[in-house]
Amino acid sequence: KSGLDSVSEWLPLTEEWLPEVMILVCNRVSEDGVNRQKAQEWCIKHGFELVELSPEELPDEDGMF
Q1: Inside any domain, residue 24
Q2: Residue 35: which domain range?
Q3: What secondary structure, in 3-state letters, does 1-55 show?
Q4: Sorted alphabetically, which InterPro entries does this protein's record hold (predicted)?
């Protein structure tokens, strides 16, 4: 069972309570589990913001030029 499957079990509550802000908080996404693209797509589909507390370091785009 993936992390998103576990979170999806809570969706009926969001439909009942209709919160104005929904945030999916995780330690980090990873290529071994749920990757960033899949997590972001899930969040967009269900109206959540994705917050990673300890994201993997991404290459510095400004330093690449």
Answers
A1: yes
A2: 3-55
A3: CCHHHHHHCCHHHHHHHCCCCCEEEECCCCCCCCCHHHHHHHHHHHCCEEEECCC
A4: Alpha/Gamma-adaptin-bd_p34
| Virtual torsion, Cα 55, 12, 42, 46, nearest 10 deg | -110
Where the chain has pLDDT below 50, the residues are none
Residue 44 located in a structural domain: yes
Neighbours of 60 (CB within 10 A): 7
Cα–chain center distance at 21: 14
Instruction: Name residues whose C-beta falls within 8 Å of residue 43's C-beta, 6 or more positions apart in sequence.
Output: 24, 49, 50
DSSP 8-state assignment for residue 62: G
Q: Work out the mean pLDDT of the chain and round it to a whole number.
A: 89
